[in-house]
Amino acid sequence: MVVALRRPNEDLSWSISTIGRFPDADYVRRRDGAYGRPHFGKRAAFLVEGEYYWNGFGDAFLIDQHDLRGIHARRFERPFVRRPVTDDLVAALRETRLARIAIPQNMKRARELFDAAPTAELVPAFGRRLIIDATEKLWVEGYR
């Protein structure tokens, strides 16, 4: 994943500057031969706010903060035991994903794609959403 920032110029136009390349997610070969993400696979969480950016991947509860030059500013880390992915979690995910299919003709293919994807062994430590609030505290979305 290439991360680019949109920055306001003095004339209120916008510039884009690239920070760098970061791994995005686990990609694996599915049973149907195509590549995709495993259910409950890790994904990048990324936030740019002010003069900093934060990123983490969910394989541990670990989020790094850098300034816009790429210099590491600090690390947010806390003990976290990842829980195993159970059949009930996979069934609930399948039900949720298939409920989003609006066109009935697409349901069969959606089931095939879901069933062809492998499942990770552990639920990620957090989701993809990071927020900095008005008091500059970092909020991390739980994995759902």
Describe the structure.
It contains 2 helices and 10 strands. It has helices at 87-99, 107-116; strands at 2-8, 14-21, 28-29, 35-36, 45-49, 52-56, 62-67, 72-77, 130-132, 138-140. A 4-stranded antiparallel sheet has the order 5-6-7-8, with no helix packed on it. A two-stranded antiparallel sheet has the order 1-2. Strand 9 and strand 10 form a beta hairpin. The longest helix has 13 residues, at 87-99. Mean pLDDT is 81; it is low at 1-6.
Key traits:
disordered N terminus, two-stranded antiparallel sheet, 144 residues, four-stranded antiparallel β-sheet, alpha+beta
What does the average pLDDT come to?
81
Please report which band the strand proportion falls in: under 5%, 5-15%, 15-25%, 25-35%, 35-45% or over 45%.
Answer: 25-35%
Query: What is the helix/strand order?
Result: EEEEEEEEHHEE
What is the tally of beta strands?
10
Helix/strand class: alpha+beta
- Poorly predicted residue ranges: 1-6
Q: Total helix count?
A: 2
**In this structure, how is the largest beta sheet organized?**
4 strands, antiparallel
Overall, the morphology is elongated
Radius of gyration: 18 Å
> Portion of residues in helices?
10-25%
Distance between the termini: 22 Å
Chart the SSEs and their pairings.
Blueprint: E1 2-8, E2 14-21, E3 28-29, E4 35-36, E5 45-49, E6 52-56, E7 62-67, E8 72-77, H1 87-99, H2 107-116, E9 130-132, E10 138-140
Antiparallel strand pairs: 1-2, 3-4, 5-6, 6-7, 7-8, 9-10
Quick summary of this structure?
With 144 residues, the chain is α+β, with helices and mostly antiparallel strands. It has helices at residues 87-99, 107-116, and strands spanning 2-8, 14-21, 28-29, 35-36, 45-49, 52-56, 62-67, 72-77, 130-132, 138-140.
